[in-house]
Design goal:
With 275 residues, the protein is of the alpha+beta class. It has 3 domains: 1-75 and 156-179, no CATH class; 77-147, no CATH class; 183-272, no CATH class. The chain has helices at residues 3-20, 27-40, 66-75, 133-137, 139-155, 183-200, 204-215, 227-247, 251-263, and strands at 49-53, 60-64, 79-84, 88-91, 98-109, 116-124. The strands form 2 sheets. Strands 3, 4, 5 and 6 form a 4-stranded antiparallel β-sheet that branches. A two-stranded antiparallel sheet has the order 1-2. Strand 4 and strand 5 (98-109) form a beta hairpin. Helix 3 (66-75) runs parallel beside helix 5 (139-155) and helix 6 (183-200) runs parallel beside helix 8 (227-247).
Length: 275
């Protein structure tokens, strides 16, 4: 698959995830989730990550699922194994109460060097158990899931907190719809784009060409752009205008610089926009 085809596939996945899984969630939260997916090679359509509302401010926190961690492990190219022991009833030294301890290990072998690393650990039942839900109906399975994600995250250097560790099953962590961004916000974005294009001195046709380069596909009109693509275009225009203003480049000269790059089918780099 070519790089262009890969980028187009990633764009399609992002748009589909935005429309079907993350509908109504603020753009900033969705962009963070998709950026994390790209960093770890995760697929949002397979629910490798979930978004959960974090409070009154309507912001959502990003969590990885056990399926996402297993995907990272399998995609690493390393030989690995996961071992889970038998639950042990014993006194928890941190609480002084009877508890259930479950321990295990992940062995990881680097095929290039043959070096083996062993990641061991355990979790106390009382520290993760929740009231109701899967913890009430399948406590042993949930306890094991917590141990598995705890070990996998350490073994494969994943910084995200797994959703199982916060006591929520991925099926129950579907994004809670919140009110969509007000229409005024969208109009404000388009007004901002218009102001930035004016500051660059570009025509409508040149703006479409610039937008096509930013989103890496053909753009015939403003209506072709998805919400996330609009944000990308705004960010690129702001970058260009800020650099021109920093270098003291007048508007007519700005347009000439950008046109020269557009004729070559590429975007101006930050260090190249000054004259």
């Amino acid at each position: 698959m070519t790089q262009l085809a890969i980028r187009e596939r990633e764009r399609e996945v992002a748009v589909l995830a935005r429309e079907r899984l993350f509908a109504g969630i603020p753009d900033e939260d969705v962009k963070l989730a998709l950026a994390i997916c790209q960093r770890y090679g995760l697929d949002p359509l397979l629910r490798h990550v979930v978004l959960i509302p974090g409070g009154k401010d309507r912001r959502h926190n990003v969590y990885i699922t056990r399926d996402g961690l297993l995907h990272v492990a399998h995609a690493s190219g390393k030989a690995w194994s996961l071992e889970v022991g038998e639950p042990e009833a014993r006194q928890n030294p941190y609480t002084g109460k009877q508890d259930i301890y479950l321990k295990g290990r992940v062995r990881v072998v680097d095929p290039a060097t043959g070096r083996e690393q062993v990641f061991e650990g355990g979790v106390w039942y009382s520290e993760y158990a929740q009231k109701g839900g899967a913890w009430a109906t399948h406590p042993a399975a949930m306890h094991q899931k917590v141990l598995e994600v705890y070990l996998l995250r350490r073994a494969f250097d994943v910084a995200l907190t797994p959703v199982e560790e916060v006591g929520v099953e991925p099926e129950a962590a579907r994004p809670v719809p919140v009110q969509a961004l007000p229409q005024e916000d969208e109009r404000a974005k388009w007004k901002r784009i218009g102001d930035l294009l004016k500051a660059l001195g570009l025509s409508k046709e040149e703006a479409q060409q610039l937008a096509s380069l930013v989103v890496e596909r053909e753009v015939a009109s403003a209506s072709d752009l998805e919400p996330l693509e609009v944000d990308l275009l705004v960010a690129e225009l702001e970058r260009l205008v800020a650099q021109f203003e920093e270098d003291g480049v007048p508007v007519p000269d700005r347009a000439e610089v950008v046109r020269a790059y557009l004729q070559e089918g590429k975007l101006p780099h930050r260090e190249e926009v000054g004259v």
